[in-house]
Design a protein that fits this description.
Blueprint (H helix, E strand, L loop, with lengths): L1 E12 L7 E10 L2 E7 L7 E7 L4 E4 L1 E3 L11 H8 L4 H6 L4 H10 L2 H16 L3 E7 L6 H17 L3 E9 L10 H18 L5 E6 L6 H13 L5 E4 L7 H7 L4 E4 L5 H10 L2 E4 L1 H6 L8 H7 L3 E3 L13 H12 L3 H7 L2 H6 L17 E4 L6 H4 L6 E6 L2 E5 L1
Parallel strand pairs: 1-4, 1-5, 6-7, 7-8, 8-9, 9-10, 10-11, 11-12, 12-13
Antiparallel strand pairs: 1-2, 2-3, 5-14, 14-15, 15-16
Helix pairs in contact: 4-5, 5-6, 6-7, 8-9, 12-13
Bound molecules: 3-[(4S)-2,5-dioxoimidazolidin-4-yl]propanoic acid (DI6) and fe (iii) ion.
Length: about 400
């Protein structure tokens, strides 16, 4: 069998179902695709341009971060200090800080400056074996600045070996020029921003922040209807700080995912299970805002709702760029199993961004995105804190980094 590269002597966690372990595995690539994967005892005779001996290392799919706000200007370290002194996230937001302060810094930045600011955050993800990242707009909050943010997000893929999925999050917060008129702002999101984003093909999905400090269920429904009328799938920040029943609305629109979900109830879980909507959990935000209500993991599990994990990398509630630490937090704080954590940053994360046909597992026909690890067992990826055992990263069949 002709191919470009063969990785031999690998312990594979293919994630095709469960961990999908193959103890003596091989993977072959042709172009940017996986041409063959399986047990070495069943491997065909390869005619490969290059052979790589993995020396018994573990190989997983390239990791996927399915919820980030990588594109933003400035930081919020000062607000962090205010919170340490006792102010709450909601108090800071209501006092004009929070998302609106990041909006000002984002509006002041050019597209090139937004790219430059995001690259170190992206590089931190890639250094832990990430090969696909979802990136939201949502700090521009005007048509021109939202389009600029989405273009900056797309531009990241030209600067680094990574697949970028963009999500339009115009309904993230109320910009000051619409103070007192959230419905007027939602009019703009629906009748101007979404059509413009769709016309330029700048977004793969549409998201909203359905929350007391964000938008109501009725406003979120209008955003989803506008997205649907342009053929765009939806996602939702739901049930993070309170229960507005956003997850059920998301499920009604067959959302790819509903994210956060600390305050999710049984009706929301049932609706998500029926619609196949992924629960994307963001333990970094839970940790950073010192939330105490844990998402209903046991009920999600019992209902068969797929669970993905993401950094939520954003300056206000989760300045986090480590999928490895996300897995550790999901296990420690939410009691996810090792298998659930690994599926959460691979297969289920791919599902949450609508790319399961392309990524998230090591299977023939998918993109050859791999992470090769210096570990003895998969649990080490979840167990350690602040330690990175990545040995090599493969993107589209090419080694892009190796220790
Ligand atoms: N939920 C969050 O946790 C972030 N956005 C959202 O909708 C917070 C974003 C920020 O504070 O800048
Ligand atoms: Fe978020």
């Amino acid at each position: 069998m002709r191919c470009d590269r063969v990785w031999r002597n690998a312990r594979l966690a293919t994630l095709s179902s469960g961990l999908g372990v193959i103890e003596r595995g091989q993977v072959a690539s042709l172009g940017d695709r996986i041409a063959w994967v399986g047990d070495e005892a069943e491997a065909p005779a390869f005619e490969a341009t290059e052979e790589i001996d993995c020396e018994g290392r573990w190989v997983t799919p390239g990791l996927i971060d399915p919820h980030t706000h990588l594109i933003h200007g400035g930081d919020r370290a000062h607000e962090f200090e205010l919170r340490l002194a006792g102010a709450s996230y909601e108090e800071i937001a209501r006092a004009g800080g929070g998302i609106v302060s990041t909006m000002q810094a984002t509006r002041a930045a050019s597209e090139a400056e937004l790219v430059r600011a995001a690259l170190p955050r992206l590089d931190a993800l890639l250094a832990e074996g990430v090969t696909t990242v979802e990136v939201k707009s949502g700090y521009g909050l005007s048509t021109a600045h939202e389009l600029k943010a989405l273009r900056a997000a797309r531009a990241l893929a030209a600067r680094r070996p990574v697949t970028i999925r963009t999500t339009f999050l115009g309904a993230h917060a109320l910009p000051p020029e619409f103070a007192g008129d959230p419905d007027g702002y939602i009019d703009l999101v629906c009748s101007e921003m979404i059509p413009a984003v769709a016309a330029e093909g700048l977004a793969d999905a549409v998201d909203a922040f359905c929350e007391g400090i964000g938008f109501t269920i009725a406003q979120t429904r209008r955003v989803f209807e506008a997205a649907a009328s342009h053929g765009l799938p939806v996602k939702l920040h739901a049930e993070q700080l309170s229960n507005l029943h956003g997850a059920a609305l998301a499920a009604e629109f067959r959302a790819l995912s509903a994210d956060h979900l600390e305050h999710l109830d049984d009706a929301g879980i049932a609706a998500m299970a029926k619609a196949g909507t992924v629960a994307t959990l963001l333990p970094g935000a839970y940790y950073f805002v010192r939330e105490t209500k844990v998402p209903p993991i046991a009920a999600l599990r019992a209902a068969g709702v797929p669970i993905a994990l993401a950094t939520d990398c954003n300056p206000g509630t989760s300045p986090l760029t480590s999928p490895l630490l996300v897995m550790n937090m999901a296990a420690t704080l939410f009691r996810l199993t090792v298998d659930e954590c690994l599926a959460g940053v691979t297969r289920e994360a791919a599902r949450a961004v609508g790319l399961l046909g392309e990524a998230g597992t090591i299977e023939a026909g998918k993109r050859c995105d791999l992470a090769i690890w210096d570990i003895e067992r998969p649990a080490e990826l979840v167990y350690r804190m602040g330690f990175n055992p990545l040995h090599a990263r493969v993107f589209g069949g090419k080694t892009t980094w190796t220790r």
